[in-house]
Amino acid sequence: MSTIQANNSKITVYVVSCWIFAAFGGLMFGYDIGISGGVSGMDDFLIKFFPNVYERKLHAKENNYCKYDDQLLQLFTSSLYLSALVSSFFASKACSALGRRPTIFMASLFFIAGAVISAASEHRWMLIVGRILFGVGVGFGNETVPLFLTEVAPIQLRGAVNIMFQLFVTIGIFIANLVNYATSNMHPNGWRVSLGLAAVPALMLLVGCFVITDTPASLIERGKDEQGKAALKKVRGVDDVEVEFKEIVAACEQAKAVKHPFRNLMKSASVPPLVIAVFLQIFQQFTGINAIMFYAPVLFQTMGFKSDGALLSAVITGLVNVGSTFVSIYAVDKVGRRKLLLQACCQMLISQLAIGIILSFSLKETGTLDRTLATIVVILVCTYVMSFAWSWGPLGWLIPSETFPMETRTAGFAFAVSTNMLFTSIIAQAFLTMLCKMQANIFFFFSGWIVVMGLFVVFLVPETKGVPIDGMVDVWKSHPVWKRCFKNE
């Protein structure tokens, strides 16, 4: 009997509420991604904290590509991700020692504190402190929520349930774009409203912590077998959970034999999931997606849109992002992970090359795109965002959460999260400068990375659809490349 047949489950209102409340951690993350670029382009914000950038913006005709090139302005965005990078390792320890639910609870508290300080900022240092607190919240949330969703999901729905995290990320980005569009004319404190409203998804996550249960795997891992079995019955919606309970107990007993999970990641058997987890996060950032999502309003202004038009275009791409993520939820457990990743590489490559060609020939250092070409660029950005949203966005979080064994799961996922935050911060800190130096060639730069990503999937990423979360070892042993890591076992 297969694991899918043996492990009974029924979808109940409580089970769905657990998924939704936990996924608010993604909404929290997405809201911050979307809010940063809009706030960075608001005149009132620039006058108060970055007057040099505001002066340069007034003389934008001098150079379309360089008017927002400022390291401190980019630090406003990137400082969050540097903070999240460091905090993800502390989150890994908390996740193992305290459980998934308490760690999610801490994530919401840090994020609320960041929202309050950011909205109340009077000095640049207060702004950065707020961003750092946001980052701790993101580090704790991004470490824990995908693991929580993977561990509470029945195997036949694991991909779709885990992608709820990315779905809520996209919804957060979309809501942030709407908020920025609404607050851009609220002078002089529209930026305070935008930053302060980040507390709302964090409050929803905080409330959710009183509704959701900790995951059965986390409870059993910490020696609370009876509570773990009760939690398993709640999240499966049935009483007959004996087969799955025994599987989790066996995995946890094996995990307990590992005293140093981070050290265990260095063993040859841990190489395949660690390499894939780390490089998926690197490639996710080098698609160029966060360059577009962070700075969409700024990017569209560079292409010749007025301020309101730029924000409206960002809203449109945000809406496409949300809608396309539903495609992934539907397709991931039917089509599989690899096909979605490879299809998206083709679509993103075509979109990026086309944007680069149009801007190379039509947008010089001065002047703007004509209306027709500007509309085409927005459409191409949408086709690019669309393909990312049903592939590299959600699967970059799903695949690492389902490939590590129990004994190294939180430690391995901490490496994935910290890698994501590191390269997100690099892109956030460098993009506006890269746009200034490389101009339209920046789209060709990201196109080259997309080719590398496709080759990586073809040769190194196995299909994980329908594979039990603690049954990946058989997949590695039969893989033409990764089986070499198990030849001594």
UniProtKB/TrEMBL annotation:
Entry similarity comment: Belongs to the major facilitator superfamily. Phosphate:H(+) symporter (TC 2.A.1.9) family. Belongs to the major facilitator superfamily. Sugar transporter (TC 2.A.1.1) family.
Pfam family, one: Sugar_tr
Hydrolase in keyword set: no
NCBIfam families associated with the record: SP
Protein name: Major facilitator superfamily (MFS) profile domain-containing protein
The keyword Membrane belongs to this UniProt entry's keyword annotation: yes
Topology of the protein relative to the lipid bilayer: Multi-pass membrane protein
TM spans (from-to): 12-31, 103-121, 127-149, 161-179, 191-212, 274-298, 310-333, 340-361, 373-399, 411-432, 438-461
Domain of life: Eukaryota
GO cellular component terms attached to this protein's record: membrane
Positions of the Major facilitator superfamily (MFS) profile domain: 18-465
Lineage: Eukaryota, Viridiplantae, Streptophyta, Embryophyta, Tracheophyta
Gene3D superfamilies, sorted: MFS general substrate transporter like domains (1.20.1250.20)
